[in-house]
Write a structure and sequence with these properties.
Blueprint: H1 10-20, H2 33-52, H3 59-77, H4 86-116, H5 123-134, H6 141-163, H7 172-196, H8 201-230, H9 246-256, H10 263-287, H11 294-302, H12 311-328, H13 336-341, E1 343-346, H14 349-352, E2 363-366, H15 375-384, H16 387-397, H17 402-409, H18 422-438, H19 445-470, H20 475-486, H21 490-501, H22 509-527, H23 535-545, H24 550-557
Parallel strand pairs: 1-2
Helix pairs in contact: 2-3, 2-4, 3-4, 4-9, 5-6, 5-7, 6-8, 7-8, 10-11, 10-19, 12-16, 16-18, 16-19, 18-22, 19-20, 19-22, 20-21, 22-24
Length: 572
């Protein structure tokens, strides 16, 4: 055993103890507890490493996570798949898939960082200051002051060179990404400065003025990139920029989601679904008396909204209606507590600029105009959240959709939240839109148009999100596409595209709605359609199994072989 002398620095002791700490081995057990605890351990260790290595784009962070993922790959590789029961086999395959993907994301991060470095050659020095503090290394106040002074000069020099006559303008995408990253790095530097300022008198004496210069130079440079290079005007809505991941990025993301299709094949699926909704929309339009002018029928439906102040009671009515529909037909189990605890909140005008429609889960967030909105925005919000569009989304957000999903996730297979994917989460909610259509939930042509609008919207999401990341559609073209092809209000279309590309959602998120729904529908046909399971058994089994790529839901329910080198192959 190692014993430290009284003069040994404590961080040296900590370092040696860290070497003695080895991750626990994964052991084969007769039940799922071994792999379940490994998944939980991976999740917890990854979370604490993210908190420790918290500087954006730090080289030290990437290096540490590469070691972390390599360790886990080795441990999973050494585990005998045949010694595990089915639940543990599934967890092993899912965890290995997750580790491979997250390791690939480090390479993607490194690539985009290298694209930004010409616009931020000073950033690595600032990140190193932060990492040195995280290592609890003593600060040299004079050296830190010299570093701050040098960085301030380099920031100003970089801006001058960019704005010089004849300078080659950088890509707006890279400039926007750099500006956003530098805002984060500026915040990191502020925390570094705050750690010693006022506490260490010598630090304050040396660093106060140079730090102020760096902070001011970074602020000015970020504004320059945003306003002069990207074209963002202060006080105006920001343009939608986005950051395409390209062909290779989509291939990696599709492999992680276990979708054995190319982007071109997925675009064909979306067009096929569009053709179906077009045909059904014409039928509903004719039922309403508008003939083949489906746009006129859609406009009529948009204007069928409640008066201000009555949206909550309408949402409650529609929530109870959907719950009664699925329960009375024995489609799945709805625990009484799940019906009791969901809540409702109204969405702020600011939030509606990004999410113009409802958001859901345990709390359904309702979009509807407030008195502070402009007259035009009020009309668009009412039209976009009319009675029949809302009827088609309430069950998506509450029961049997996201609220019930979340409720069950906390009570069954909760360790598998690590593997959650939009193809399971959003696919499940969208699948219910499809199933309820097939079971006669829409009774009138207006109710049908409400559901068809969203089906068209999901097909459009596949098209505009994949084409954007392939570089064949701009954000503005995506907005126009939603307005012209689906019938969105323009402000709502802009909010939808902004939400898709502002970095809040992964690249395949929007495609996951319809594609995941199609996967669940195909799986239901295989199991319920063949008489192997009832609807209740099928749906309860999915929720109790926890989130995962739907390919693995299929393997689990159909009892398919699960070799260690399992590869997705299901052409749903």
């Amino acid at each position: 055993m190692f014993f430290a002398s009284r003069c040994t620095p404590w961080w040296a002791v900590a370092g040696l103890l860290a070497l003695l700490w080895l991750p626990h081995p994964i052991t084969a057990q007769s039940d799922e507890s071994g792999m379940r605890s490994s998944v939980e351990r991976f999740t917890s260790d990854r979370a604490v490493l993210r908190r420790r290595y918290d500087a954006p784009y730090s080289l030290e962070r990437r290096q540490r996570f590469r070691r972390f993922f390599e360790e886990w790959q080795g441990r999973l590789r050494d585990l005998d798949q045949t010694s595990l029961n089915r639940g543990a086999q599934i967890d092993r395959i899912l965890l290995a898939n997750q580790v491979i993907y997250e390791r690939s994301l480090l390479n993607r991060e490194e690539r985009v960082w290298e694209e930004m470095l010409p616009l931020a050659p000073f950033a690595p020095r600032l990140l190193e200051l932060h990492e040195a503090r995280r290592r609890l290394e003593p600060v040299d106040p004079r050296g830190a002051a010299l570093a701050m002074d040098s960085v301030a000069r380099l920031v100003e020099k970089t801006q001058r060179e960019l704005s010089a006559e004849g300078a080659i303008a950088p890509s707006k995408i890279v400039a926007w990404r750099t500006a956003e990253t530098l805002k984060d790095i500026r915040g990191t530097l502020q925390r570094w400065n705050r750690f010693s300022t006022g506490y260490d008198p010598l630090f304050s004496w040396w660093v106060r003025d140079p730090y102020a210069k760096v902070d001011k130079a970074l602020d000015a440079y970020v504004k320059y990139l945003r306003e002069k290079v990207v074209g963002i005007r202060e006080g105006e809505d920001e343009p939608i920029i986005g950051d395409p991941i390209g062909v290779d990025g989509l291939a990696a993301d599709l492999a992680h989601e276990m979708i054995p299709y190319t982007p071109a094949e997925l675009l064909e699926i979306a067009e096929r679904e569009f053709a179906w909704t077009d045909a059904e929309m014409l039928k509903a339009s004719r039922e309403m008396g508008y003939g083949d002018d489906w746009r006129a029928a859609l406009e009529a439906v948009k204007n069928m909204h409640v008066e201000p102040g009555h949206q909550p009671e309408m949402i409650l009515e529609q929530a109870l209606e959907a719950t009664e529909f699925v329960e009375s037909r024995g489609l799945l189990t709805v625990p009484p507590l799940a019906k009791e605890i969901w809540r409702m909140e109204m969405m702020s005008p600011e939030a509606q600029k990004v999410s113009p429609f409802f958001l859901g889960g345990e709390v359904i967030q309702v979009s509807f105009p407030t008195d502070s909105m402009s007259h035009e925005d009020k009309l668009m919000s009412m039209r976009g959240n009319n009675r029949y569009f809302s009827r088609a989304t309430v069950h998506h957000e509450l029961i049997p959709g996201h609220h019930l999903q979340g409720f069950m996730n906390e009570r069954y297979s909760s360790h598998r939240r690590l593997f959650r994917t939009p193809f399971w989460t959003e696919g499940w909610a969208l699948y219910w839109e499809m199933l309820l259509w097939d079971l006669g939930f829409p009774r009138t042509p207006e109710e049908k148009i409400g559901m068809l609008f969203w089906r068209s919207h999901r097909a459009a999401r596949i098209i505009f999100s994949l084409r954007f990341h392939l570089g064949t559609m701009t954000p503005q073209e995506a907005v126009d596409f939603l307005v012209d092809r689906v019938g969105h209000e323009r402000a709502n279309a802009e909010a939808e595209v902004r939400r898709s590309f502002n970095g809040s959602y992964p690249p395949l998120y929007q495609a996951g709605y319809m594609l995941g729904g199609l996967q669940f529908r195909a799986l239901r046909q295989a199991l319920v359609g063949s008489g192997q399971m009832t609807d209740r058994e099928f749906h309860d089994a999915i929720l109790q199994g926890g989130p995962m790529p739907v390919e693995m839901v299929r393997a689990r329910l159909l009892n398919l072989p699960l070799p260690a080198d399992y590869r997705a192959s299901w052409r749903f």
